[in-house]
Amino acid sequence: MMRRRQQIFVLDIADQPAFAFEAENARAAALLVQTPRFARAFDDFCAKRGKAWTETAVVSTRAATDAEAALYRDRVAGFADATDQILVAHSPGDR
Q1: pLDDT by residue (tens digit) across 9-68?
Q2: What are the distances in angstroms from CA 68 to CA 33, 54, 62, 83?
Q3: Separation between Cα atoms, residue 92 and residue 10, nearest integer Å
Q4: Sign (positive/negative) of CA torsion 24, 29, 31, 36?
Q5: d(CA 24, CA 54)
Q6: What is the dihedral of CA 71, 88, 13, 65, to 10 degrees?
Q7: 49 close to 41: Cβ distance less than 8 angstroms
Q8: Could you read off the pLDDT of 27-36 as tens digits, one per residue?
Q9: pTM to 2 decimals?
Q10: Are 21 and 32 spatial neighbours (Cβ–Cβ below 8 Å)?
Q11: CB atoms within 10 A of CB 32
């Protein structure tokens, strides 16, 4: 059975793109970033890079631009067989 291509979303922190990830739709993306597992992974990522963030930081989820989606797909192409995993790619730089 062919896997349905999911949409790519971006987690913006303080109006800057921080991470890109796949979700079925905008509602699923918003719910995913609120899960404790996602929060722990995000906290760990930031701590390892010395980029602390506070719970007061403005965080929002949006659909990725075409360029962001292409970059995400390029970065995760090596994980194509990991269909049961959540793949999140760091999105440094401008939109």
Answers
A1: 998 887 888 888 889 999 999 998 888 888 888 778 777 766 666 666 788 899 999 999
A2: 18, 25, 11, 21
A3: 11
A4: positive
A5: 28
A6: 30
A7: no
A8: 999 998 888 8
A9: 0.72
A10: yes
A11: 19
